[in-house]
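Run log, item B.
One chain of 162 residues. Sequence copied directly from the ordering sheet:
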Amino acid sequence: MLIPSIQNTLNELSDLLSQLSKDDYTCPCHGLSNATIGEHTRHIIEMFQCLENQYESGIINYDIRKRDYQIQTDKAFAQETIVAVINQLDKPNKVVQLQQIVDGEELLIESNYNRELLYNLEHCIHHQALIKVAVLQNDGITIDANFGVARSTIEYRKQCAQ
């Protein structure tokens, strides 16, 4: 169920990008501290790419990202990259180590591939919520009410409505 949820969430993002003009994608948004939708999209994609690219080594460091300017400025390229990410998700679960430098100290924390997929899903939804802030300022764009909303919140709202 995890991989289909990630696929669905990334497809929602790609569908939204289809509605955006180049300016919508690349113009700074005051409500996002002058970040762009493209920058948030790049960040989402690159976190998944880190997990993919570092899977074999078993050491995942989300700070080691390419920061690919083309992803944040070319929405068609971003959509192609989303497809590539989706096509590479289905891997066997295995133990991995998270590596991070915190206050000059290297930390290695045990995790596993499925846990990191879940982290990336939640991280993606969080950034989609930020993207939604920018998109709601444009009347010409249709966005699903659940875009950028955590699955647990959606389920909670369904229970409250009953």
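Observations after the first pass:
- The radius of gyration is 16 Å.
- Strands lie at 59-60, 95-102, 105-112.
Flagged for discussion on Thursday.
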